[in-house]
Amino acid sequence: MTTETTTKDTAPGASVPGERVLDARGVTMRFGGLTAVRGVDLTVNSGEIVGLIGPNGAGKTTFFNCLTGLYVPTEGEVRYKGNVLPPKSFKVTAAGIARTFQNIRLFANMTVLENVLVGRHTRTKEGFWSAVLRGPGFHRAEAASRARAMELLEFVGLDSKAEHLARNLPYGEQRKLEIARALASEPGLLLLDEPTAGMNPQETRATEELVFAIRDMGIAVLVIEHDMRFIFNLCDRVAVLVQGEKLIEGDSATVQGDERVVAAYLGEPFEGAPGAAEAAEVAEAEATAAEADATASKADATAAGATTADAEAATADADADTTTDAAPGKENDR
């Protein structure tokens, strides 16, 4: 799992070695009666790459949204370097957490360089009047931002395409641009949501090298991915979410060897599976309802049978009365 990667500088937002960067405790997210994430605990330390995996619909992206302020958790708290994060995404970015998205979200009609400059806004100190008057301070800040943006484009290998429109980049390079924009905010923790989705093996390998290089800059990384080879080659620790709950957390060998993880991905039930108790309650309720319906149907059938028997008896009595009332000998009259 080791890859030789060297970098010249440490990132401005890099954390102190060994420092706990992210501490999520009991994070729960409910949407009405649906619990998408239930009581998830997760930590990320400085210099670590941590993976988050699970079947589709396990709650991984919802958990990311809780970490980055797009959702306010129903229960639990999220701390970054010991401080509780505010429930606003732009404040979370300013605090030091940046992210990419499962679906690429670039400014398609802006240039590659302009997209990265957008990521610099949280670190730019110039205000409204400075931008209007465009004094010396504004020009110095603008030049510094452009220089830093070009450094990041060189870092991801896009410096030669700085003036290209983002929409004209190949898919893999758009992914790199999104990472460069996230790095422009000088994060101490970078969250990557399926960074290799849709990539070929060569692009996946290049992304793996890029993530190692980001880690070597002192930036902790938390990554969601469905490519198991990518995740297990890359990550120091891996956590598995199943139906919104954390099933297991450990190194790659521990997670790969756990039968529950295999069963969860194959959709097979296993003892103690998240949601098993709720499923049992639903099954019991359905069985009780079915039994009640069967009893009611039987009672209705019995009642219907009794009614039919009464009707037949009444008809027989009526026929008997008619025969008795007929005059003697009349039945032979013609």
From TrEMBL:
This protein's UniProt keywords: ATP-binding, Nucleotide-binding, Transport
Chain intervals with Low complexity compositional bias: 277-327
Every ABC transporter domain range: 22-268
Superkingdom of the source species: Bacteria
GO cellular component term, pick one: plasma membrane
GO molecular function, one term: ATP binding
Region ranges (Disordered): 277-334
UniProt KW Disulfide bond keyword: no
GO biological process, one term: L-isoleucine import across plasma membrane
PANTHER family with a match to the protein in the record: AMINO ACID ABC TRANSPORTER ATP-BINDING PROTEIN (PTHR45772:SF7), CONSERVED COMPONENT OF ABC TRANSPORTER FOR NATURAL AMINO ACIDS-RELATED (PTHR45772)
Protein name: ABC transporter ATP-binding protein
Originating organism: Streptomyces naganishii JCM 4654
